[in-house]
Amino acid sequence: MSGIVESAGTEEAPTAQNRTVRSALLDAALEVFTERGYADAGLAEIAARSGIPVGSLFQHYGGKRGLYLALWEEFREAQERRTAATLAGERGRSVDDPIALFVAGARAYLEGAWDNRRFGRLLVEDDGPTGFDALRRQWDRAWVRRNARLLEVDEKRRAGRVRVRVLTTVIGGAARELGDCEDETEAQEIVDEVCGILIHLSAPPG
Predict the structure, then answer these.
(1) What digits encode the pLDDT tens for the residues 147-203?
(2) Residue 193's domain is classified under what CATH number?
(3) What DSSP character marks residue 6?
(4) Domain HTH tetR-type spans what residues (predicted)?
(5) Whole-angstrom Cα distance, residue 7 to residue 61?
(6) What is the pTM of this model?
(7) Residue 6: inside a domain, yes or no?
(8) Burial 4-28 (b: 16+ CB within 10 A, else e)
(9) Are 127 and 35 in the same domain?
(10) Separation between Cα atoms, residue 179 and residue 79, nearest integer Å
């Protein structure tokens, strides 16, 4: 689901200055969205906190919706890179058991959710731009399909599809809970507990 960030105009070359400006805008947007929620966040405040003029904000992101979607895409891509690297490392150690790989990927995803908990807390509020729910559902469906392939589940069988969807829902729910953890120790307890649950639930029936 790449390319969801809306462009307000001509694409700019990814110069160091552009990257710095965009990073400052995203950091400020995340702060304001987290404090006030998406609906009540103001572009003037985001611009003021970033030190970037409002006009430049529109040039780079087209407005508040573009900022939110850019934050989502940044979060999503970071999570995908993290889990992919973990799976590559496991396979490099000759791990080929589907359940072991699935749980390793789930652990990486959950630890990434803790590391990026500021945005995770924002997602829990379900206070995003119009149309975001549809984009999120689209990504969720792709996530379920990837997990089905990882677990070597026959997606043509309804029981298999349901099992993978339940497992994916468990991970998503746990990721949301991590946003409310008091500290890393509590977060790690949740990650360990959920991974134990996933091992139990991942075993094929019979």
Answers:
(1) 999 999 887 788 888 999 999 999 999 998 998 888 999 999 999 999 999 999 887
(2) 1.10.357
(3) P
(4) 19-79
(5) 6
(6) 0.84
(7) no
(8) bbeeeeeeeeeeeeeeebbebbbeb
(9) no
(10) 15
